[in-house]
Specification:
- By secondary structure, the protein is mainly alpha-helical.
- The protein contains nine helices and three strands.
- It is 70% helix and 8% strand.
- Strands 1-2-3 form a three-stranded mixed beta sheet.
Length: 192
């Protein structure tokens, strides 16, 4: 149902990248690879390096908290245009949410350094937060979690949080019959 109005718009405006990108997004979310292939070809006929297309798909997937899959789409965007700074920001945030702090921090820093024109406040704030966390946070890895504590809180509460989170994980996976992809990032801030 979502494709019908987009197909109509694409017929009216066959060279509109935004319409084609929305259409491609829906096709990916519906797992219609054949239709996506045709839309992707239409985009490539207009723009040889469709980083915008892949970035928008990654953003939609990341919005559904499927960060591992989103990372692959951000990589596709960067493979065709390694100076497409929104994709660096997106992949950085996706890596962070997926639990890979090193790659996340590197990508977000690269976006901030490279995009001197727009320098997103969101990106700048994340870089500053990550720098602070590197200095003042302790990271504990458990079977299912990566837990980041403010170092002033970690001594008093670390054992409690580790036990509580692992117990909750076991209870919820038993109850719902679903084990989320991990590790799960859990951050405990003294204040925010």
């Amino acid at each position: 149902a979502a494709l019908a109005p987009l197909a109509e718009l694409a017929e009216m405006y066959p060279n509109n990248l935004e319409i084609l990108t929305w259409r491609a997004n829906v096709e990916i979310l519906l797992a219609d690879k054949e239709a996506f292939g045709k839309t992707e070809a239409s985009v490539k006929a207009i723009h040889a390096k469709p980083a915008f297309l892949y970035h928008q798909i990654a953003e939609a997937i990341a919005g559904g908290h499927r960060f591992g899959e989103a990372i692959e789409w951000y990589k596709r965007a960067l493979a065709v245009d390694d100076k497409f700074w929104p994709a660096w920001t997106g992949i950085g945030f996706a890596y962070l949410r997926h639990g890979d702090f090193k790659l996340g921090q590197e990508a977000v820093s690269k976006a901030l350094d490279g995009d001197t024109l727009s320098n997103s406040v969101h990106t700048r704030n994340m870089v500053m937060l990550l720098e602070k966390m590197d200095k003042k946070f302790e990271t504990v890895k458990t079977k299912h979690f990566v837990i980041r504590f403010d170092e002033s809180e970690s001594k008093a509460t670390k054992k409690i949080w580790v036990e509580l989170l692992e117990r909750c994980h076991q209870t919820l996976t038993d109850k719902y019959g679903y084990t989320p992809e991990g590790p799960i990032l859990f951050e405990i801030f003294k204040s925010h």
